[in-house]
Amino acid sequence: MADLKDARILTLAGGLKVLDAAIAEAERIGQPMCIAVVDLGGNLLAFGRMDGSKALSVISSTCKARTAALSGEPTGGAHADVEIQIALASDSQWTNLIGGLPIKVGGLVVGAVAAGSGTGAQDLAVARAGAAAIPGADMFADFTPMGAEDTGIVRGSHPEKVRG
């Protein structure tokens, strides 16, 4: 077994490209956002809080980006029945809110981008626009959200607890 493996890391210049592209998409759809860009270790590279975005989205967008970078998966993919347990097990350092997207190039995670302040679909669209600024980035086209935010599940799989 090898002692080392290849890695690529998103640079500040790359992070700023991602941030600018995400801001442009948020402006295009008319939804002010908080947008966080992190490196592959979840360390903040770039951040923007657009005028009119929600103050608490500063925290959630950063957590979404960190979760996406460290898990290598888009946020919102865990089933609603386990999302609270995973958050508790990670000392609230993990989130299942939609809008965090790893930036994966050539099969390697190089960083992540996340947006917050819109709907889950808006947050994901803005994150995808940001990730697209990096040539060859995976857009996770087959991603299907499964969290309570998206399924309407309050808790559990009981039909009477599903919101319409």
Outline the secondary-structure elements.
Layout: H1 12-29, E1 34-39, E2 44-49, H2 57-71, H3 83-89, E3 100-105, E4 108-116, H4 120-131, H5 148-151
Helix pairs in contact: 1-4
Helix and strand run: HEEHHEEHH
Largest sheet: 4 strands, antiparallel
Averaged pLDDT: 90
CA distance, first residue to last residue: 52 Å
Q: How many domains in all?
A: 1
Regions with little confidence, pLDDT below 50 for 5+ residues: 153-164
Structural class: alpha+beta
Strand content: 15-25%
* CATH architecture call: 2-Layer Sandwich
Radius of gyration: 16 Å
**CATH class (first level) name:** Alpha Beta
Q: What is the CATH third-level topology name?
A: Beta-Lactamase
Q: What is the multimeric organization of the chains shown?
A: single chain
Question: How would you sum up the global shape?
Answer: globular
| Portion of residues within helices | 25-40%
Tally of individual helices: 5
CATH superfamily heading: Haem-degrading domain
Order of adjacent strands in the largest pleated sheet: 2-1-4-3
3D architecture notes:
- The protein contains 5 helices and 4 strands; from the N terminus they run αββααββαα.
- The chain has 164 residues and is α+β, with helices and mostly antiparallel strands.
- The protein has a single domain (12-152), classed as Haem-degrading domain (Beta-Lactamase).
- A 4-stranded antiparallel sheet has the order 2-1-4-3.
- The termini are far apart.
- Mean pLDDT is 90; it is low at 153-164.
- This is Heme-binding protein.
- InterPro entries: GlcG_carb_metab_protein (IPR052517), PduO/GlcC-like (IPR005624), PduO/GlcC-like_sf (IPR038084).
- It comes from Prosthecodimorpha staleyi.
- It holds the Pfam family HbpS-like.
